[in-house]
Specification:
mainly beta; 1 helix; 12% helix
C-alpha cells in the first residue's frame, strides 16, 4: 500500500508544499520515492496521477 506525506514550506512570498509519493516500478517491482514542490492547490491532482 502506498503512503503519502505532505509537508508545508513557507517561502518568502509564496506558500509552497513538498509532496512525496511512493511509486512501484512495473519492470522490477521495487518502490521509489518521487518528490515535487508545488502550490498546495495542485497536490491532490499530482498525487492522483500515476
Amino acid at each position: 500500500m502506498a503512503k503519502k506525506t505532505v509537508a508545508t514550506l513557507q517561502g518568502s512570498s509564496k506558500r509552497l508544499t513538498k509532496a512525496i509519493k511512493m511509486v512501484k516500478s512495473p519492470k522490477t517491482g521495487a518502490y521509489t520515492f518521487v518528490e515535487s514542490v508545488m502550490s498546495p492547490e495542485l497536490v491532490n491532482d499530482w498525487l492522483s496521477k500515476r
